[in-house]
Amino acid sequence: MAGNAVGFGEDELRTLAGARSFERGVGYVDAVSGLEVGDGAVIATVHGSDVYQVELTFGDCTGIGVSGWCDCPYGQEGNFCKHCVAVGLTVLRQETIPHQRAAARTRALGLEAWLAELSRDELVALVREQVAGDRELRRRLELRAAAAHCDVDTLGERVLALVDPRPFERFGYVEYADARGYARQVEQAADALRALTVGGQAAQAVGLAEETIRMLGEVYGEIDDSDGVVGQAALAVVDAHMQACRGASADPERLAEWLVAHVLGDGIDVSDLDPLDYADVLGPAGLARMRQLAAEALQRSPRGWAEQYLMERLIKAEGDVDALVALYAKDLLPSGATHLRIAAELDAAGRDSEALAWAERGLRDTSTQAHVDGRLVDYLCARYTRTGRTAEAVSVRRARLRAERSLTAYQQLRTAAGAVGGWESEREAALAALWEDARQGRDSRFGGSVLMDALLDDKDLDAAWREASSGADERQWQQLADLSRTTRPADALAVYLRLVEQLKEPTGDRVYERMALLLQGARDCHRALDTMGEFTAYVCALRAELKRRRKLMTILDRHGL
Q1: Which of 193, 380, 394, 411 has the fewest CB atoms within 10 Å of its CB?
Q2: In what order do the strands lie in the sheet with 66-70?
């Protein structure tokens, strides 16, 4: 093992990745290829659902361990993914890693010494040779040269050309396979903007960055950025814009106006730009101007999502809870979700009594609604229970069951009433209401009756059998049979056989798996009835009838049927 040579072992990999990613990474070890060992890092390719590039950076026996980067979607979110694990395990199994690291160190020192020995003319010739064979390197150096010579016009043309997606388009669209190449060009544009700022042209960099961000917003809808690589590159452009604003001491009010126009504009915000990231540049004057503009925009479009979100962000940054409550209160959702949001903000501010009052108002405002945000009801009941107001918690649950006939509402009432020892009386009333609904056909829009669900959940099987003939769907019949196969095997068997007969016509793996499950239930019933001979005969006849369905035969064989 090479663990001592790289400063980590399997335990470190498991800790970084988590148990699940580590185990999945073990299965990818054979998919690792192109392992290139440097002095402090390794680069490799891992072949998974796509081809991914992985880089691990490591220390030595006294170093800091290992870190990893992978260009898979999970890795790009900053996670130590299964591909990193696979490369790490490959490194640990390479006995020659110490020698390869030493050789890489020797090569690096040799290259540095050779470059130091070259004359100016020789270095220029070497760079020219590399530029001639590497288009991307040439482009980067051209941008560096334009920035160094403060050639703003040339730099501007090159930056805008880099974010033009047309060279990557096929049929008017940048496909997934080309998105990474386009993202690299956007990153180069960001590098050029930073170089312009460092070169003393921050004011010009501000304007050019804003134009670049505008262009990205216009074209992003025509790019398949499933992995988010273009979005990440756009963030680099936003960072370059912020750096330029700081370097140019940008006018706070003018910057506030641009930021508000960008956030509320019609273009796609590819970078998810957050105006408050510019708070140090905006200062009090810029933030005040942004608040003013956001308020005016919200007045023009009271229900605009972007307008509401911007104002919310600004108010939260100021810590003005009353203003935030007032903002939310202007547009209360009929489900009570906004009331709950207000209660949560007041709770966070230590204003418990006001939070409770808003939650109670939410329940009153939604009393006639069929759908109420369950989190509001849960919040209110938790508050009541915590303060010893358990009877009120039961009352809330009872009211919700009256308004929303569902198994969940029934279960929650059972829990609340059970906590105070009053479930028996509550259950009788609840079942009476559900029974009346079942008789009137008011509770079966989405399947069998809620009454059946409640009886099954209570394991009241005798009552469930009485109700089943008039109010059960197939799911409930099967559940009832599953619960009764030992206590009422003859009744359960009849259900299983009827459901099997219904599955003879349809085809497909899911149908066949369900048929096998039903037959297993029927087998248990025959065992309880001591009639296994009948079951064997039934299955033989069934297999003969459906013998042309080879996949069904395979599934029955797998289940021992």
Answers
A1: 411
A2: 32-37, 41-47, 51-58, 66-70
